[in-house]
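Catalogue entry: protein

Sequence with per-residue tokens
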Amino acid sequence: MSASPDAAAGAAGNEAMGPPPLDFDFSATPGYKGYLQRNLNIALISFSTFFIILRLGTRAFIVKGLGLDDLVGFIAYAALVSFSSMEIRGALSKDLSTFDRARKGVKEWAWTDQCVVH
């Protein structure tokens, strides 16, 4: 069975569009919700910071010993903060042209990430 002409035309239209230009201003699009992404990442960093300080403080001063699980938790926390910081930077920028052209892959990833927010 073949697809309907409308479905084929719609699929062809989506493929032809491709990603927007590198200097596309996402904040000018209707329904832009970059502030939600920023707020969620700020909340994530805040809660994670509170709990990692609470855990490491308890393990260091009450239990008197840090373990391998604390090291793994801190590495995960560092990865979370770095990723969320990049997300916040992308949500706060007027457009994604603040990344240099050498980071084209990061821009394409950020474009995909912005589309998921909508």
User: Anything to note?
Assistant: The chain has one domain: 34-117. Residues 34-117 form one domain.
